[in-house]
Amino acid sequence: MGGTTELTDVTRDEASLRRFLHGLPGVDAVGIEQRSAGLATRSIKKASKLWAIDTAISMVDLTTLEGADTPGKVRTLCAKARQPEPGIPPVAAVCVYPDMVATAKDALGGAAVNIASVATAFPSGRSSLKVKITDTEYAIAAGATEVDMVIDRGAFLSGRYGQVFDEIRTIKAVCGDVHLKVILETGELATYDNVRRASWLGLLAGGDFIKTSTGKVSPAATLPVTNLMLQAVRDWHEVTGQHRGVKPAGGIRTTKDAIRHLVAVREVAGEAWLTPDLFRFGASSLLNDLLMQRRTQLDGHYSGPDYVSVD
């Protein structure tokens, strides 16, 4: 694969884009699953575990994306995001619906926590481009510093790669300096080859992050899928010199899950990705378990769920 000039060439028309995406190496399903299983068995020392827990906390996008969300619930979420516990730095971001962005901005009060908003007809991605643009503009005007957009999986699975590419590129233009995360909804993509193609499509179109899932479809984030996406951003960096991020979201609930993902980040992409700038966890319940396990590491005994606040 050549450099950025060649990558520009592959996006010049639908046929070139299709040739590039279908020319990517096929995924060895058995191999990726075996490697993921091997990484999941890695053990780490106690001192490293505390570092891993603190690193994972700093990478959390603390999320509430429910129809029953209220301003009160969002304010409580933001208070926890600002200070998960006395003496612990804030999480990376809160993630809410566009109509809750203004509430989140007010509740955070200038704290060093990003405000991520889902957009583009989340979670289905099924609407007109005009509606998707308006959705994104609304979130940014309200104070979103990051936008998590969803691709149109129906268009992707039908082979309309140019349509998906153009939508991502258009939303990226609307975002400007606001970071754009591109949700692939990998649980609906059916094959690992499609995950690889969708990852590259998101990167080619300008996504700052590629994200596994909305959290509304099962399976959501899995270690093999995250490994594939980490391979994509690693290879993207090798070709272009640019760093892009990965965000697994949905289904990551325990400290053990988080540490497995951090091991994968280091082994697959490299240590440069062990930062909230390049790796995030989209989660709602994960933070509580990280806090409990952190206390266990420090005190030498299990604190139990009553130790942390209930979401």
UniProtKB/TrEMBL annotation:
Give the UniProt record's GO annotations in the biological process aspect.
Answer: carbohydrate catabolic process; deoxyribonucleotide catabolic process
Task: Give the record's keywords alphabetically.
Answer: Lyase, Schiff base
**One GO cellular component term noted in the UniProt record for this chain:** cytoplasm
Catalyses:
2-deoxy-D-ribose 5-phosphate = D-glyceraldehyde 3-phosphate + acetaldehyde
Query: Which species expresses this protein natively?
Result: Actinokineospora terrae
Protein name per UniProt: Deoxyribose-phosphate aldolase
Provide the organism lineage as a comma list.
Bacteria, Bacillati, Actinomycetota, Actinomycetes, Pseudonocardiales
Broad enzyme group: lyase
Q: Which Pfam families match?
A: DeoC
Asked if the Swiss-Prot or TrEMBL record annotates the protein with the keyword Iron, the reply is no
Instruction: Report the transmembrane regions from the record.
Output: none
Does the keyword ATP-binding feature in the UniProt annotation? no
